[in-house]
């Protein structure tokens, strides 16, 4: 009887030691909010309802929660399923995300999330097949197709580089989409797209195009300025062509003001319609009744 009691004590002590050992490896970096509930394997321990978080200067700046977490004993890697979380790169900015599964290096604070849906400040939603993240560097990247949807902006492209420290979002290639303004809906396309959060400024770079009901602009590079809600102006640069129902104004740079519904070239412009053309000094170009007008022509209209 005494021998049997001794065996029970030894077994209980072994179980307790195993749980303490598992808890040590799991709690080294992240925080866990629920006790282990699944079986222990040879190289990893599986937990339910786990939470990982990181902090900067005593403030939690990111958090990941998952239905299950598989924590490896011999390396700082955890695999998770049914993930969600938040990232707060600065005061007033919050990025929420969800994913079907992913993995994370808890020491380097890097990892991957699959089937991602991101909501930024409740302003727009980003979806893609996967995202790689680095919380320490503030980087999020993917080479997969990306879709961004907001109340007034829809954008599609391939590849993403989001830098929360610099507050920029770049779509790497094959950019298409549309934006809504008071004047109507405008389609756009370009090789690449960059959003500068601080300035509420967008950049369409390489074979840029923007078109609406009454105007169309093509150029090498197109800057779009907003007040956070509405488009204020666009700044077109490099081989600028502004089309308006049979007329085209050519320039190397032109600024179009949406409030005033007019374009102001910064260099001498050339207006062409059908087989006629006119050159003019720097002056506003305004679509009038669907026609582009160049003021103060230096030469008379010549028939070709």
Number of helices: 1
The helicity comes to under 10%
Written as H for each helix and E for each strand, in order along the chain, the element string is HEEEEEEEEEEEEEEEEEEE
- The overall strand count is 19
Average pLDDT score:
75
In short:
The protein is mainly beta and 304 residues long.
Give an account of the 3D structure.
By secondary structure, this protein is mainly beta. It has a single domain, classed as Lipopolysaccharide (LPS) transport protein A like domain (lipopolysaccharide transport protein A fold, Sandwich), CATH 2.60.450. The protein has one helix at residues 2-27, and strands at 44-56, 59-72, 77-90, 93-105, 110-120, 124-134, 139-150, 153-163, 168-181, 184-190, 192-196, 201-211, 216-226, 231-244, 247-257, 262-265, 269-273, 276-280, 302-303. It has a 19-stranded antiparallel beta sheet that branches. The protein is elongated. The N and C termini lie far apart (116 Å). The model is unreliable at 1-41, 276-285 and 287-304 (pLDDT under 50).
Chain-wise SSE layout:
Layout: H1 2-27, E1 44-56, E2 59-72, E3 77-90, E4 93-105, E5 110-120, E6 124-134, E7 139-150, E8 153-163, E9 168-181, E10 184-190, E11 192-196, E12 201-211, E13 216-226, E14 231-244, E15 247-257, E16 262-265, E17 269-273, E18 276-280, E19 302-303
Antiparallel strand pairs: 1-2, 2-3, 3-4, 4-5, 5-6, 6-7, 7-8, 8-9, 9-10, 9-11, 10-12, 11-12, 12-13, 13-14, 14-15, 15-16, 15-17, 17-18, 18-19
């Amino acid at each position: 009887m005494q021998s049997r009691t001794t065996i029970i004590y030894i077994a209980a002590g072994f179980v307790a030691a195993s749980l303490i050992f598992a808890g040590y490896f799991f709690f080294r970096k992240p925080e866990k909010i629920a006790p282990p509930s699944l079986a222990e394997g040879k190289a990893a321990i599986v937990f339910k309802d786990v939470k990982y978080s990181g902090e900067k200067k005593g403030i939690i700046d990111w958090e990941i929660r998952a239905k299950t977490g598989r924590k490896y004993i011999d390396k700082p890697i955890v695999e998770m399923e049914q993930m969600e979380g938040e990232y707060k790169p600065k005061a007033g900015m919050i990025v929420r995300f969800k994913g079907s599964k992913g993995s994370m290096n808890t020491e380097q604070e890097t990892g991957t999330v699959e089937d991602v849906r991101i909501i930024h400040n409740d302003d727009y939603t980003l979806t893609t097949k996967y995202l790689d993240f680095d919380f320490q560097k503030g980087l999020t990247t993917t080479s997969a197709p990306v879709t961004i949807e907001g109340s007034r902006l829809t954008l599609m492209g391939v590849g993403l580089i989001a830098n929360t420290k610099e507050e920029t979002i770049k779509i790497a290639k094959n950019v298409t989409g549309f934006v809504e303004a008071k004047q109507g809906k405008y389609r756009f396309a370009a090789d690449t797209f960059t959003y500068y959060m601080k300035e509420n400024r967008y950049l369409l770079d390489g074979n840029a195009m923007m078109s609406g009901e009454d105007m169309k602009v093509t150029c090498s590079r197109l800057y779009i300025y907003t007040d956070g809600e509405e488009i204020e102006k666009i700044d077109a640069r490099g081989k600028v062509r502004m089309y308006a129902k049979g007329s085209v104004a050519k320039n190397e740079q032109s600024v179009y003001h949406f409030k005033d519904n007019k374009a102001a070239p910064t260099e001498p412009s050339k207006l062409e319609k059908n087989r006629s053309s006119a050159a003019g000094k720097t002056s506003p170009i305004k679509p009038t009744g669907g026609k582009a007008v160049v003021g103060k022509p230096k030469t008379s209209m010549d028939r070709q």
